Amino acid sequence: MPSLTPAEWLLAVGAAVSLGVGKAGLAGLSLLHVIAFAFLFGARDSTGVVLPLLLVGDVCAVVLYHQHARWDYIRRMLPPACLGVALAAAFMRGISDAAFRPLIGWIVLILAILQGLRMQRPALLGNIPHARPVAWNIGMLAGISTMLANAAGPVVTVYCVAIGLPKYEMVGTMAWFFFLINAFKVPFSAGLGLIRQDTLMLNAVLAPAVLVGILGGRLLLQRLPQELFHLLMLALAAVAALRLILG
Questions:
Q1: Which pLDDT score is estimated for 73?
Q2: Residue % of the chain over a pLDDT of 70
Q3: Which of 22, 65, 83, 206 lies at a CB distance of 3.0 to 4.6 Å from 16, suitable for a disulfide?
Q4: How do the domains of the chain map onto residue ranges?
């Protein structure tokens, strides 16, 4: 078990709650726990701490929202996402996530701005977000970014907003997608030595905080109107993108 001060334990619990809220539907919050755990354990090692907690949240999100998933979009994104995970894992020892994060941030920020304009002017870009090559590229980017930095949430969020998924379909689709891709990541992370006995013990302590976040996030999701939900997701994704760019 890692040795943490009381203030660091408070930060870790808060980050776990944030993770749960994100899994309940407010995916734009996903980088808050990434930043907090990276501060506590370092950018690389924190990915191994976060992954089992993500899976706890994924299982709960699938149980709550599985019936809302759009499998046509999941099937489009999942193969390139798995390929992205494998490529990122193969080069993880030689690639600096500090160098990769700004690129992801710029892509997410540009996507968020374009979709914000598109919501104001529906004819902008036509049906480009629905094209299969777009889903392939989004899936690849999501796979690479989730393996390197657990930072795929904003990427998939902006895509789901762009294709116009209603909020519950969006949450259900993302729940299944991230459950499958995070489960796929486990052997790669374990092989890199990022998941260990001490990190699993910490996960067991923090798992209840994830559940609290999921319950709170579900109540909040029920009270958000559709248009406000999309605007909030874009705003949170843009903030997360800026955090990736600025480091």
A1: 92
A2: 84
A3: 206
A4: 6-246
